[in-house]
């Protein structure tokens, strides 16, 4: 199994602690695990005509690495026919350059500084974990170069029968809580929640703001577990991640003969976890990956109590899911009622209560056309899912 790290094509690596394969995981699952690095940011994806026709260098790196794995995995105990993939103009303004000659005159420090900026080394990732402002889209790094990418990726997948492979698509209910845009989100009142949503979405029209506040309206709740942070993170995660993931799954299921499965993780860490710049108490992206890689103890150390029984059950459930999917060639998942998309969405929740339980967590299956139906129809019909991100 090959791990291709995420990070918006801007950050991360194939050996990030807690988010990469380990010898412990390989022994436990009895799999050959491979990860690799590829060039990121301007070093991997800067496209200027003066630099020549070659672009998407980071993708070429990944393609070369996958070819190497295919050609060399047999001596390591793997099967080259069963290699499974497991994912995931701003620069010019900061550099002060508009052509290749200017960029070549900069020293390496200035080039990297122009990419990272002075005040935001995450390259505005927090902006992508916030409600969008009309017209400000996530940065697009990939270029249709006519060689590696002959069409936009979605169109290439639809047109290429070789791309017809089983796919497992997952997301988290509060995905953006890993590093949300608002600094003081943890301490919001319900009035602050309403004001922030209004200020952000009014750029699209007051009607959209009113509808959003109706759909995500729990301001009169007496449940102390329902907080402005939880509701706001759910709203932005639906818009940026969940609904676009559902749309992608539907498109793949419509065009592929191979099975497509979709799941949503709604299992919180036992204690708030700081993976990036925010202590996240909810089911954030990529908490289920930390669990899958069996690296929970890096973020929930023994000195503070270690992982809880539910944390460990999340690990077991996600590992069993991936193992079943990979070893069956994408034809099987470990939940009896989990039918192919677009029939069913599987939701992993806390609390082991049914025959589909893994210790302290439970798989629940619901009809795909009912899960988040109203919310996704709203965001999609208003065009806001075009502000999606995939990592």
UniProtKB/TrEMBL annotation:
GO terms for molecular function: carboxylesterase activity. Its EC number is 3.1.1.1. Keywords: Glycoprotein, Hydrolase. Coiled coil: none annotated. The keyword Glycoprotein applies. The keyword Hydrolase applies. Residues 1-83, 98-340 form the Carboxylesterase type B domain. InterPro entries: AB_hydrolase_fold, CarbesteraseB, Type-B_Carboxylest/Lipase. This is Carboxylesterase, putative. It comes from Ixodes scapularis (Black-legged tick). The lineage of its organism: Eukaryota, Metazoa, Ecdysozoa, Arthropoda, Chelicerata.
């Amino acid at each position: 199994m090959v791990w291709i790290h995420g990070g918006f094509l801007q950050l991360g690596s194939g050996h990030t602690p807690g988010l990469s394969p380990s010898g412990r995981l390989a022994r436990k699952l009895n799999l050959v695990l491979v990860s690799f690095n590829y060039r990121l940011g301007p070093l991997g994806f800067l496209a200027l005509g003066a630099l020549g026709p070659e672009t998407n260098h980071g993708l070429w790196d990944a393609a070369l690495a996958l070819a190497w794995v295919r050609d060399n995995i047999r001596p390591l105990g793997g099967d080259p026919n069963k290699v499974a993939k497991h994912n995931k103009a701003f620069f010019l303004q900061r550099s002060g350059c508009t052509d290749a000659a200017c960029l070549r005159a900069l020293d390496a420090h200035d080039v990297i500084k122009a990419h990272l900026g002075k005040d935001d080394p995450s390259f505005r990732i927090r902006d992508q974990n916030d409600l969008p402002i009309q017209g400000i889209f996530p940065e697009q790094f990939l270029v249709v170069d006519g060689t590696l990418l002959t069409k936009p990726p979605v169109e290439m997948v639809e047109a290429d029968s070789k791309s017809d492979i089983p796919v497992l698509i997952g997301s988290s209910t509060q995905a953006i809580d890993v590093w949300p845009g608002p600094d003081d989100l943890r301490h919001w009142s319900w009035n602050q929640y309403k004001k922030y949503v209004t200020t952000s979405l009014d750029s699209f029209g007051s009607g959209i703001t009113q509808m959003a506040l109706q759909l995500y309206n729990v301001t009169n709740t007496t449940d102390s577990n329902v907080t402005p942070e939880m509701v706001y993170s759910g709203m932005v995660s639906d818009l940026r991640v969940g609904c676009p993931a559902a749309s992608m799954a539907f498109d793949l299921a419509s065009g592929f003969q191979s099975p497509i499965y979709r799941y949503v993780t709604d299992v919180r860490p036992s204690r708030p976890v700081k993976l990036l710049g925010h202590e996240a108490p909810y089911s954030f992206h990529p908490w289920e990956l930390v669990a899958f890689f069996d690296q929970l103890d890096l973020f929930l150390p023994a000195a503070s109590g270690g992982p809880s029984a539910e944390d460990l059950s999340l690990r077991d459930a996600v590992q069993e899911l991936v193992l079943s999917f990979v070893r069956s060639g994408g034809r099987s998942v470990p939940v009896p009622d989990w039918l192919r998309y677009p029939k069913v969405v599987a939701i992993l929740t806390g609390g082991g209560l049914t025959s589909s339980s893994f210790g302290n967590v439970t798989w629940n299956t619901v009809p795909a056309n009912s899960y988040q139906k109203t919310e996704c129809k709203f965001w999609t019909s208003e065009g806001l899912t075009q502000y999606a991100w995939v990592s």
